[in-house]
Task: inverse folding
């Protein structure tokens, strides 16, 4: 019944406690990194949302310029081919 060595048990407990401390430290680092990643993703999302309106304006201006260019090309084509 006294097969259990108290000194060996104490060593194992100390080893496990040390492992748990390292795991907890690693988890704390991971949680902090995840917070930073989340903030970065939110910043990227905000930038893309703001740029979305700018892209719409740019496409609208480009489309308008293409229409005007097509109209002028059609008008002047008649002058050049006569």
Result:
């Amino acid at each position: 019944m006294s097969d259990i060595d108290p000194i060996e048990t104490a060593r194992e407990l100390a080893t496990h406690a040390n492992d748990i401390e390292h795991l907890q430290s690693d988890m704390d680092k991971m949680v902090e990194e995840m917070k930073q990643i989340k903030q970065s993703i939110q910043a990227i999302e905000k930038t893309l949302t703001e740029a979305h309106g700018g892209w719409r304006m740019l496409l609208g201006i480009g489309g308008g310029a293409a229409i005007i260019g097509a109209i002028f090309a059609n008008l002047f084509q008649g002058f050049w081919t006569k």
About this structure: The radius of gyration is 35 Å. The mean pLDDT is 87. The longest helix spans residues 6-81.
